[in-house]
Write a structure and sequence with these properties.
The chain is α/β, with parallel strands linked by helices. It folds into 2 domains: 3-173 and 370-387, Glycogen Phosphorylase B (Rossmann fold), CATH 3.40.50.2000; 181-367, Glycogen Phosphorylase B (Rossmann fold). The chain has helices spanning 11-27, 42-47, 67-80, 90-103, 123-136, 148-156, 186-195, 217-229, 251-261, 277-282, 298-305, 318-321, 336-348, 352-367, 370-378, 380-387; strands at residues 3-7, 31-36, 52-54, 84-88, 107-112, 142-145, 165-167, 204-208, 235-239, 268-270, 286-289, 309-313, 328-331. α9 links the parallel β9 (235-239) and β10. 45% of the residues are buried.
Length: 393
């Protein structure tokens, strides 16, 4: 029986991104274990019965104090006698790969879930990412990227050879069984809106994700204010919160202060993290991702699955997630004016958001079926084994 260890920074990455693949591997007789730092959504892992190892990490990802985490992971990997270590995220990708190499793990796979070379990434982060990948890419048998742009970046910058990189093209996909607008009739949508204090008949602009500065939530609020200033009687609905592992604990406070100062508390609602995301998205008319950088803009794809038009910034992968003018609108990063204009178009133009939403649903069903993409993810392991001079089967 093969043994795979998934290594990531926080449990929420495991629960929202890795679990479908882990379940499929388990059904094939592979023994799956997780390793991550403390954080939200650990229950999702334990509910499925997967064993996990908690890594004692400082919230400051690059703190020298985290050297002990590398030693601890090395010992855990040696004891576990894992056949494959599969790392996720930039920082834990470094720690996990180094530990796996020291532990003598035969095969190492690394998933790039947030390229630091994309638009909007600060120069200092790009430099750090390039330097660490230059050092640790040599430990990787197979890179897995969410999109073709990230795969091209790795090769073009000399961090990986073409045969070392495997692109999923369409991210991790969407659970079309859960993200199905047919599950919610008009009564259910009305009840959901009422439960969050959202008024019936007033357009709802929605956001789903972490409530931190780099996600552009202050830009979204400023754009919302401009839309309101043009006479649109719109509401803003935030679905998300700040993770305990997030370094930015200030943006949420600033946002609430601005809302209070503008006396718009009745028109801006917060729902926190929820397990019923499809139901909540159905309460929205337009879904917005105003992020400064993304590995892949996943929320617009989920919005499309629910038949909702999406507005996203021009981050890496945006043109795969959204077809501009057909399933939603793409605006420049950090451009509040352009964001406000896009929101105004979708709210003020009769039927436009609904038409784009229907087109988005058709496209997601065709391209982003999670079950099909999980099968594609499995292809990374035979490739990694072959590069290590071994056989997967």
């Amino acid at each position: 029986m093969k043994r795979i260890l998934f290594v990531t920074r926080v449990p929420i990455t495991a629960s929202r991104i890795i679990l479908p693949l882990a379940r499929r591997l388990q059904s094939m007789g592979v023994e799956v274990t997780f390793a991550f730092g403390s954080g939200e959504e650990l229950d999702e892992i334990t509910r499925d019965g997967f064993p996990y190892h908690l890594v004692d990490l400082s919230n400051r990802s690059l703190s020298p104090a985290n050297l002990h985490a590398i030693r601890a992971m090395t010992d855990f990997m040696k004891e576990g006698r894992f056949d494959v270590v599969h790392t996720y995220s930039p920082v834990m990708g470094v720690y996990g790969r180094l530990a796996a190499k020291r532990a003598g793990v035969p095969v190492i796979v690394h998933s790039v879930i947030g390229s630091m070379f994309g638009p909007g990434v600060p120069f200092s982060k790009r430099c750090w990412y390039f330097a660490t990948e230059k050092l640790f890419a040599q430990y990787v048998d197979q890179f897995v990227t969410l999109n073709d742009a990230d795969a091209k970046d790795l090769v073009d910058k000399g961090l990986a050879r073409p045969e070392q990189v495997f692109s999923l093209t369409y991210e991790y996909g969407v659970d079309l069984g859960a993200f199905d607008p047919g599950l919610f009739d008009s009564k259910a949508v009305a009840e959901t809106r009422a439960s969050f204090g959202l008024r019936v008949g007033v357009p709802v602009i929605g956001y789903v994700g972490r409530m931190i500065g780099e996600k552009g939530i202050l830009d979204l609020y400023d754009a919302f204010r401009r839309v309101r200033g043009r006479g649109a009687n719109a509401q803003l609905f935030f679905l998300g919160d700040v993770l305990t592992s997030d370094g930015d604990q200030d943006t949420m406070r600033i946002l609430r202060q601005r809302i209070a100062a503008d006396e718009l508390a009745d028109d801006v609602r917060f729902a926190g993290f929820r397990n019923d995301v499809p139901r909540c998205v159905m309460a929205m008319d337009v879904v917005v991702l105003p992020s400064y950088h993304e590995g892949f803009p996943r929320i617009p794809v989920e919005a499309g699955a629910m038949g909702k038009a999406a507005v996203t910034t021009a981050t890496t992968g945006c043109d795969v997630a959204v077809v501009h003018g057909q399933t939603g609108l793409i605006v420049p990063i950090h451009d509040v004016g352009a964001l406000a204009e896009a929101l105004w178009q979708l709210i003020a133009t009769d039927g436009l958001a609904a038409r784009m939403g229907r087109a988005g649903r058709r496209r997601v069903v065709e391209l982003f079926d999670r079950e099909r993409i999980v099968e594609r993810q499995l292809e990374a392991y035979p490739r990694a084994y072959a590069r290590a001079g071994l056989r997967w089967g």
